[in-house]
Amino acid sequence: MLKKLFLIFFTFILAFSALFSPLTASAYEITGFEIHAKNALLISKDTNKVLYEKNIDQKIYPASITKIMTAILVLESDKYKPDEKISMTKEALDIVLGTGSSVSNLKEGETFTQLDLIHLVLMSSCGDVTYLAAMYYGGSVDNFVDMMNQKAAELGLKNTHYANPVGLHDEQNYTTVRDIYTLTLYALNNETFKSVCEKPRYTMAATNLSGERTLSTTNFLQDTTTNYYYPYAKGVKTGYTDEAGRCVVSTAVYGGYTYVCIVMGCPPNAGRRYEFIDSANLYRWAFNNFSFKEVANSKEPVCEIPLELSLETDFAPLYFKEPFVTVLPNEADASTFIIKPKLNSEKVEAPIKKGQVLGTADVIYAEEVIGTVDLVAGSDIKASKILVISKYIKSFFFSKYMKIFIGVVILAIVIYILLCIFLNMSKIKKRKVRYIPYKKEK
Known about the structure:
Elements lengths: L1 H18 L19 E6 L5 E5 L12 H9 L9 E3 L2 H6 L15 E3 H9 L4 H12 L2 H14 L22 H12 L2 H7 L3 E4 L8 E4 L16 E9 L3 E10 L2 E10 L7 H16 E7 L6 E6 L6 E6 L3 E6 L8 E6 L4 E2 L7 E9 L2 E10 L7 H13 L2 H32 L11
Parallel strand pairs: 11-15
Antiparallel strand pairs: 1-2, 1-9, 3-4, 5-6, 7-8, 8-9, 10-13, 11-12, 12-17, 14-16, 16-17
């Protein structure tokens, strides 16, 4: 009994501590280089583990990073047919005049495939082709922008709003690094998007008005002809306006690890492209200093939970639902990890099934929660029929209905007793004879 009380108390303390532990994403201090971006994120795509963050929830202007959303809406449209042709219009050419947007040099009436269009939007970031896409797939630019905002809401981009499909500066065209990451993960699930944004070069076939042409990516991390080439980089999108600064969203894959890096608001220095410098430095730092580590397996019990209605045992051992593996510094010592269980209840009743989720556990490293894993029962535990019957008998006699019934019976007895007393008193009163004193005659 004493052991049982101690376990309940200990479990309560652990749950209480975990409740007030910091829930912010883990991130580490970098050394050896400077981050020039105003906003940045480096995160493991494999484990969703944040390695570095800087102002990721601050409102920012996305510039041409906006075109990630534009491209996804095109690729998900019922009208998108990669081999079918689309024609450049005068309206699309005119709308970008004087805006400073990149242009494709396509001519009015020039036809090209819809797959070419995706390459022109993502790789070359052409504003005229992007507006053409908005008009063709949305019916109008305004309607397409409405579609963009509807998709943002659908994806849970709570701090994102679009005012145009290109990313031209507008106070109402804004986002955050956190939302960009969510959008990027979604976009990379589309195989066409992923394939297009990872290409350094793409050759467009000759059109009705022009010969064959080769498109080059605006992401210098992927371009071997630039000083910013990083061999492990893969996509995704660049952007620039005076207000947004220089921006790039990219991924990098090496040695079985995949990272996503977002840098926004880099200074527009003519001689140094800091968006690519920052990204490459962050990738090198991650690949050189972090590795996968199994913090806990699913074979050793984490804690126990008090169990009732079973004659087999008084406690059910709980295990991690699955091994917890994450990206951590190479020097991370397994002995420094803290596991804090949070049980769904103070106790459970048999029967319970193997794999039944009975709580969660926070995994803490360097005073930060680095993950949360379900805690499950390690085996089936049967209920005792005798204890179950006893429970129902006990619950019946202590149920509110029984209490009401007993209350009614007691009240009825009291009323009956009072009524009997009243009736007896009435009878006694009727039996009484009036006493008349005897007087002698004179």
